[in-house]
Amino acid sequence: MEVRGRFGWGQGNDGGALTAIPTHLRLPISGAAVPLHRALSLLLESGRAVLGRSEDVIGWAVRWVLLWCGIVLLGIGILDRGAALLPDRAPPTGSGMPVVGAARTTVGVVSNTIVFAGNEQGHVVLDAAVNGAPVRMLVDTGASLVTLTQEDARAVGIARAGLAFNGRVSTANGFARMAPVTLREIRIGQLSIYDVPAAVLENLNISLLGMSFLSRLQSYEMRDGKLTISW
C-alpha cells in the first residue's frame, strides 16, 4: 500500500489515518525495511511543504498590518501639516482698545495677553471692575499700591466711616492722607486678581492701578506708549 494524492489521506497497516504527504513524496510500504535516511528525508520534505503554506499566510497578514499602519501614519502627517498651514487670525486693533491674545511659553504653558494703547499724553487709562463695580483707572508703575479716589471707594462698597486715614503719602499735588484697604477683586477683561492691597487717598483725581496689582501678573511692559500685560 502507498500514500497517494497531493495531500490525500491513506491508511497504515493498522487501519489508522496517516498525515497528509505531497503526491511526489511516496513511500512504498510492502513490508520491506525502508532506509532510515530515506525516511527522514521524506519527513523533512513534508514538513517544508506544510511550513511553506504557513509562512505564506503569516506573510500575507504581516503585509496587511504594515499597509494599515502606513495609512494611519500618512493620515496623521496630513492632519499635522494642515494645522501648521492654517493662518493665524488676529483681531483688528484700534486706538485705546485692548487687544487680547494667547502665547505659548517655552515650557508649554499657554499665557494670556492684553495690550492697551496709551492716549495722546502717553498715559494708559483703562476700565476695570473693582469689587464688581466699574472704575476708570490710570496705570502708574511708580505707585506701590492700587489707589482709589474717595468717590470710587464709595462706588465699590467701601464706606467713608470705615476708613482710617492714618498714613501720609506724597503726590503731585502735595501730601495727602491715606487709608489702607484690601480689595476683594480687580478684574480687567478676562483677568481677575483677588485680595489686592490698596489705599483710599484724599485729593486724588483718578484712581491708580499700581504695583500691588501689576506685580501679581506673569509680566507687564510699557513700550512705545502701549501697556502689555500677561498672566
Which helices and strands occur, and which strands form pairs?
Blueprint: H1 36-85, E1 99-104, E2 110-117, E3 125-130, E4 133-139, E5 146-148, H2 150-155, E6 167-171, E7 174-188, E8 191-201, E9 207-209, H3 211-214, E10 219-223, E11 226-230
Parallel strand pairs: 4-9, 5-8
Antiparallel strand pairs: 1-2, 2-11, 3-4, 3-7, 6-7, 7-8, 10-11
Structure, described:
The chain is an alpha+beta fold and 231 residues long. The chain has two domains: 1-86, no CATH class; 99-230, Beta Barrel (Cathepsin D, subunit A, domain 1). The protein is built from three helices and eleven strands, in the order H-E-E-E-E-E-H-E-E-E-E-H-E-E. The strands form two sheets. Strands 3, 4, 5, 6, 7, 8 and 9 form a seven-stranded mixed beta sheet that branches. Strands 1-2-11-10 form a four-stranded antiparallel beta sheet, with no helix packed on it. The longest helix is centred in the N-terminal third of the chain and has 50 residues, at 36-85. It starts with 35 loop residues before the first helix and ends with a strand. Mean pLDDT is 75; it is low at 1-34, 88-97 and 102-106.
